[in-house]
Each structure stands twice: as structure tokens, then as C-alpha cells.
Design goal:
single chain, mainly alpha, 55% helix, 6 helices
Length: 126
Amino acid sequence: MSRGSVAQNVHQIRRTGGVRKSRQSIALLQRCGRCHTLDRVYKTVQGPEQWRETVTRMVEYAAGSTGAFHAGEDKQIIEYLSATQTPDAVNQKRAQADAAAAEGRSLIGQNEAPRLPPRGRNILPA
């Protein structure tokens, strides 16, 4: 297993259009990202039962280490991966991406774009 670097994981988030900030995705970033790049996680497509087996195995590997899972994180990660990394979910995301590309539009909404202050405006309080 190779440990994922912060730079690799940030690159993956940017490349995939971001990760919805939820308890599940934050737990995934904090726990899975300690040993894997997010590429490894997001390239894996499994059914909910296989995700349960995989995460349970990872919890056992991490037990007693500084990367040990906190109570309930395994359940959160299993729920997140079972909702986003199953064959049906991945096929749905691909179909959305294909439709957006065919229409010449982005999957990233305007409200997700970083907002910068107007030029010359001080963003720090006086």
C-alpha cells in the first residue's frame, strides 16, 4: 500500500470536480487518504456488500495505529462508497458527464466556483 500525499489527493479532488462535503466524504478523506491516493478509492467500483467487506478489512489493518478509525467512521465511509462507487452510481455519473459534454456545458455549477474579491479590495478587516 502506498500512502497518499495531500497534493495527490487535492489534485484528485480538483480533477473529479470536487467531493461533496459530507461527514461520509470527510471520513473517507481522513481515513482512506492516509494509506491510499483518492485515485485508488475512486477507481474502485463495487457493490455495497463488497464495500462493507473492504472497509471492514481496512479498519482491521488500521487498528492500533495512528490511522485507526474512530467509532462510526466505518459506517459513514461504507454509506458514502455504497452511494457513489457502485456500478449503477458510476454509470449514472458517466451518463451525466457525457450529456454535459455533448451540450458543451460543465458539470461544475456556478455556485461551486471560487469567488474572489474585486480587484484592489482588501479582504481582511481593518
